[in-house]
Recover the amino acids of this structure.
């Protein structure tokens, strides 16, 4: 009997796939059959529907799961506000659209999807096997597609069997298709015969059914009836459906079906544009960037440059932010150029100059980065800001633009000048604004100053500044993560550990925080805890090579050479020139007595990084075992030069000197090693032996 797999039903009409489902021997469904068509509710159409369906039961049986993932749940299904308590609001999440100066990372949706995948996994574990059936997967927004790909990869089909359903065209190219082809068994669904009959009589009821289904049906009869209507009749149906959906007061309908119907209703330029504006604003602020682009492109058809401010702030600025975050800065630059060609409004030119400068100093690939051009553009924006007639607005905009100039200074290496600019901005806002004004932007300035301090190795000042930021915005997880990194550099590992734990608690699954916590656990000797963290990091991100390095090293130290070799191979498949992994392979070969293979691996590591201390020490040890004292001594000299305070390296070099009967050199190295590790009995015994031999020589 073949093992259980996830399924992909491909082909036919939706009714054909519906008829096939009962024949597949699926366990009971988790929630209804989900429709992922993004026209219904935009981002997370399917995921949000599922959360709304299961939430009453989970709140009763496992309220702890809801508390653990409340931020993800409310971001994906905001209709649950008031039912699910919000415990992790931040200045960013609370900011109004016109007050937002920080945007979410493109990684946020992935983290949220991992959180919901774990939420569902743990919920279903208490229910027994379930099936999750998702229709119209080929029409899913990128957020749902990302979530479904994560479910296919991470969730055991014996626990929760995912069934993707698509039409004949199948899934579009992308991560979901790639994952489905690797993790789901594809079943072709034969189409039922399609009998087309010419519409007779009044087709309005049939067309009305199509519109009331938000025009996602694939039934030919419904589509034909809709197409046969006069334009005015179609518009009337869309108006009625939009009004019906608006009366339900469900915000995610305003990301999908409502703007669609208003666009196709009788007032596209008015109600349609307004509906799109709401959707674009909210999707942008939530970090749903693919949806932002699709919605804003539709808005471009309705809002022209005869409304320059609305066109720029509603369409262009949202589009450009999305393109920049999604690493397509050239698309953003084209839109800024378009804005400057079509408007003489100084605010638009200021914004375009500033943002284009950020593209050239931050977002473009290295070969297109041009900090001098960025500086010229940001200076232009600063000049525009200085001309605002309102004193308070002039002050705020000038500080904001100079903050951009500080970033250029950082990228050009003048961190002192950057610190001066950011500190001046903080002082101006503290002097001129009330404490509750522009809180988000002021927290961003403090965060930027913390980063500059750390860049200047002013770590105590950096930690203090991060602490100030945390006081302003205590639920923002990245602040704790960054402060933890600074604390580690100061050697304050207990405090860093606490900050990583806080970042983990406040954030959806955040693999970097687990990785750093695992590092500290490994240094503390907590092998099981460190391995658990690195295991989880690789579950979240199987391409995170550093986790393979650390996990392989721990497994090797624990004597599990087979597991260490498997991790090293997996990491090298992703990064073939990784010096750390070649070193681990060399150490494995050395432990197995395969000296030639070990030397070859250490050589590969040192070809990538000639100053890799572990590779130098490993090759020296292997050379010593092979009788090549000259190579061993040369490598250990290099290693000691790089790490003069490493007692083990001086001890090993002393052993090479001892084998060559160079007693004074051996004694000198052992005396240095003992000063570094005065409690080490092996060093003390070797020193006594070599001193005796030196006297006798």
């Amino acid at each position: 009997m073949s093992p259980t797999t996830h399924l992909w039903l491909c082909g036919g009409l939706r009714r054909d796939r519906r008829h096939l489902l009962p024949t597949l021997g699926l366990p009971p469904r988790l929630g209804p059959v989900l429709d992922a068509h993004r026209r219904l509710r935009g981002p997370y159409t399917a995921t949000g529907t599922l959360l709304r369906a299961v939430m009453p039961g989970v709140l009763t049986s496992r309220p702890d799961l809801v508390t653990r993932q409340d931020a993800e749940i409310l971001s994906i299904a905001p209709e649950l506000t008031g039912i699910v308590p919000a415990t992790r609001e931040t200045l960013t999440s609370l900011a109004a659209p016109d007050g937002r100066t920080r945007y979410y990372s493109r990684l946020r949706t992935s983290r949220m999807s991992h959180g919901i995948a774990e939420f569902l996994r743990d919920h279903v574990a208490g229910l027994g096997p379930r099936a999750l059936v998702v229709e119209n997967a080929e029409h899913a927004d990128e957020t749902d597609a990302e979530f479904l790909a994560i479910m296919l990869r991470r969730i055991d089909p014996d626990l929760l069997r995912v069934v993707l359903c698509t039409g004949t065209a199948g899934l579009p190219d992308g991560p979901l298709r790639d994952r489905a082809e690797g993790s789901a068994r594809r079943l072709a669904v034969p189409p039922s015969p399609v009998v087309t009959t010419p519409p007779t009589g009044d087709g309005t009821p049939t067309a009305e059914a199509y519109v009331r289904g938000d025009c996602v049906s694939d039934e030919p009869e419904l589509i034909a009836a809709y197409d046969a209507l006069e334009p005015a009749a179609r518009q009337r149906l869309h108006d009625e459906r939009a009004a019906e959906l608006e009366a339900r007061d469900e915000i995610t309908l305003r990301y999908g079906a409502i703007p669609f119907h208003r666009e196709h209703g009788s007032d596209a330029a008015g109600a349609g544009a307004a509906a799109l504006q709401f959707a674009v604003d909210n999707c942008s602020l939530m970090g749903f960037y693919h949806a932002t682009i699709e919605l804003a492109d539709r808005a471009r058809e309705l809002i022209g440059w005869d409304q320059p401010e609305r066109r720029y702030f509603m369409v262009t600025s949202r589009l450009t932010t999305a393109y920049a975050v999604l690493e397509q800065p050239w698309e953003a630059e084209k839109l800024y150029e378009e804005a400057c060609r079509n408007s003489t409004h100084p605010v638009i030119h200021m914004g375009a100059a500033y943002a284009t400068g950020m593209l050239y100093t931050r977002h473009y690939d290295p070969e297109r980065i041009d900090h001098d051009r960025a500086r010229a553009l940001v200076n232009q924006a600063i000049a525009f800001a200085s001309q605002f007639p309102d004193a308070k607005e002039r002050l705020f905009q000038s500080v904001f633009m100079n903050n951009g100039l500080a970033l250029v200074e950082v990228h050009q290496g003048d961190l002192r000048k950057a610190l001066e600019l950011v500190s001046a901005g903080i002082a101006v806002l503290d002097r001129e604004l009330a404490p509750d004004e522009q809180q988000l932007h002021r927290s961003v300035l403090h965060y930027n100053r913390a980063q500059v301090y750390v860049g200047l190795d002013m770590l105590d000042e950096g930690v203090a500044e991060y602490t100030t930021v945390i006081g302003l915005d205590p639920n923002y997880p990245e602040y704790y993560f960054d402060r933890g990194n600074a604390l580690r550099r100061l050697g304050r590992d207990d405090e860093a550990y606490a900050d990583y734990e806080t970042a983990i608690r406040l954030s959806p699954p955040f693999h970097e925080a687990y990785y750093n916590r695992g590092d500290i656990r490994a240094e503390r000797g907590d092998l099981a805890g460190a391995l658990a963290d690195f295991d989880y990091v690789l579950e979240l991100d199987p391409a995170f090579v550093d986790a393979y390095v650390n996990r392989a090293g721990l497994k090797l130290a624990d004597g599990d050479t087979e597991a260490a070799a498997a991790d090293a191979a997996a990491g090298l498949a992703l990064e073939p020139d990784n010096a750390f992994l070649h070193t681990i392979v060399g150490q494995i070969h050395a432990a197995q007595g395969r000296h030639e293979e070990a030397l070859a691996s250490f050589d590969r590591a040192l070809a990538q990084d000639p100053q890799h201390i572990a590779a130098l020490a490993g090759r020296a040890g292997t050379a010593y075992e092979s009788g090549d004292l000259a190579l061993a001594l040369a490598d250990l000299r290099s290693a000691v030069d790089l790490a003069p305070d490493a007692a083990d390296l001086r001890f090993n070099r002393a052993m090479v000197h001892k084998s060559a009967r160079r007693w004074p050199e051996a004694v000198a190295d052992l005396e240095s090693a003992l000063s570094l590790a005065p409690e080490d009995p092996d060093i003390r015994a070797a020193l006594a032996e070599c001193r005796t031999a030196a006297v006798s020589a």
